[in-house]
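REVIEWER CHECKLIST
Item 1: Sequence provided? yes
Item 2: Single chain? yes
Item 3: Sequence as submitted:
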Amino acid sequence: MPAGEERVIARMRPHARVLVVPVLVLWAAIGLGTLLVDRVDWPLWNTAVWTVAGLVVALLTVVPTLAWLSRGFVFTTERVVIRSGFGGTRRETMLSRVHDVTVRRRGLQALFGAGDVLLSTGGDRAVVLADVPLASLVQRMLSEQLGARGIAMPEPPPGR
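Item 4: Structure as written out by the authors:
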C-alpha cells in the first residue's frame, strides 16, 4: 500500500441485541391492538386503541431503533471514527496515538461475544467503543494495525 493512503478496514454498529426489546414491544402493541379492537361499544374506542398503540410503537420501538442506527464505528488503516447520537457527534482517534487496546465485557456481552473496546491514548481517559460486536476480533485487528505501524502490542490472551 502506498504511504499515506488510508483504507477502510471495517464499518460496524453496536451489537444488535439492544433491538430485541423494541421488536417485542412492536409485536405486543400489534397483538394487543388487534385483540382490543371492537371490544367496547364506544364510537372512538378503535381510534383510541390504535392511537395508544401507535404512540407506544413510536416511543418504544422507532426511537430506540433510530438511536441504534445513528451509532457506528469505522476502522481505517489510520484512525478509528466513532459516530454517536442523533446530532451526528463524531469522534476520531488516530491509531498513531493509541498504545494499548483492551476489551472489557459486562453482563450479557460475554454471552454474545460483544464487549467494550478501550483504546488507551496516554490521556486521562481511554477512548471507549461501547458494545462492539465481535470485540475480540476488533481487538486483534486493531493490534495488527498497531503492529504494522511499529507499535509493540502485547498478544491478547487466548479465548478473548
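Item 5: Key structural point noted by reviewer: The mean pLDDT is 89.
Item 6: Recommendation: ____
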